[in-house]
Every structure is written in structure tokens, then in C-alpha cells.
């Protein structure tokens, strides 16, 4: 197994640890909602970017993954959705707009910085026409849509008495 695959395995282990340590058991249902709904956003968006030739993922965890799905399975279906769970569950809902803006910005910036480092130092991601600021913008938009869907869904659940 090459270095890139070990990096993916390490990130998977880190994500599992984050879930085990920081995901409250009583929020498991909400976590599943957030996890699955972000996949609904990231898969077509990632597929579009790859098919347009803007970005590619030369090395995948599963060796033959690029034959069937040219997006990054690890990123689109695991890492980003798991982190979006924490983004929404720990969102500073009772803070002012400046704090909320900073929360979005810092979260997306850290994620983008990690992607840029991986792009520069590994074969996990390769920017063709893509630029780091497109990642930053798409992460913010994805988090915004997913978080507001989550708020809408929870509000509807409370109306029908399921929470």
C-alpha cells in the first residue's frame, strides 16, 4: 500500500475517533441526517467538477475505484459528510452573525488548507482547472445548504411531535 492510501486510512481512523469521542449518542439520528444529506450534495457536485476536467483524484483507497466513480469516494462520501455532522451539531446558533460567519469561514478554510496541502504533496487530489478558492466557496455553499436543510428538517420534526 502506498503513502497516499495510508493517508486515507489515517484520515478514516481519525474520523472514527472523532465520532466516538465527540458525537453525542442522543444526536445519532441527526448525525445520520446530516451525513446522508451532504452526500446528496457532494456526489453530483464532485462528479460535475471531475467530468468537466477541473479536478481529479489519481489515487483512491480502493484500487479500481476510478473505473466506476471518478470522484473521491473518501472525500465525497466519508470525510466531508462526517465533518459536516460536527459543523452543524456544534454550530453557534445563539451567536451573532459575525460569529456565525467566522465559524463558516474558519471551518471551510481549514478544510481547504488541508486539501491544498494534499494537492501539493500527494497524488490524492490534482487540480487541473480547479483553484483553491473554488474549494473554499463550494465547501461554504455545501455546508450552508446542508445546515439549513437540517434546521428545516428538525423544525418539521418538532411540529409533528417527534422530538
TrEMBL record:
Coiled-coil blocks: none
Superkingdom to which the source organism belongs: Bacteria
Signal peptide interval: none
Transmembrane segments: 6-24, 31-55, 75-92, 101-118, 130-153
Alphabetic keyword roster: Membrane, Transmembrane, Transmembrane helix
Protein biosynthesis keyword on record: no
Record's keyword annotation contains Membrane: yes
InterPro entries xrefs: CBO0543-like (IPR048147)
NCBIfam families xrefs: CBO0543_fam
Name by which UniProt lists this protein: Rod shape-determining protein MreD
Amino acid at each position: 500500500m502506498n503513502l497516499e492510501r495510508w493517508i486515507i486510512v489515517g484520515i478514516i481512523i481519525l474520523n472514527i475517533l472523532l465520532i466516538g469521542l465527540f458525537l453525542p449518542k442522543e444526536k445519532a439520528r441527526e448525525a445520520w441526517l446530516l451525513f446522508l444529506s451532504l452526500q446528496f450534495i457532494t456526489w453530483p457536485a464532485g462528479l460535475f467538477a471531475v467530468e468537466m476536467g477541473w479536478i481529479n483524484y489519481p489515487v483512491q483507497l480502493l484500487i479500481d475505484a476510478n473505473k466506476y466513480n471518478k470522484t473521491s469516494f473518501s472525500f465525497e462520501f466519508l470525510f466531508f459528510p462526517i465533518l459536516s455532522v460536527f459543523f452543524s451539531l456544534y454550530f453557534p446558533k445563539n451567536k451573532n452573525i459575525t460569529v456565525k460567519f467566522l465559524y463558516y469561514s474558519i471551518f471551510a478554510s481549514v478544510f481547504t488548507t488541508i486539501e491544498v496541502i494534499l494537492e501539493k504533496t500527494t497524488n490524492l487530489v490534482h487540480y487541473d482547472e480547479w483553484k483553491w478558492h473554488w474549494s473554499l466557496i463550494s465547501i461554504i455553499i455545501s455546508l450552508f445548504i446542508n445546515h439549513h436543510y437540517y434546521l428545516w428538517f428538525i423544525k418539521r420534526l418538532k411540529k409533528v411531535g417527534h422530538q
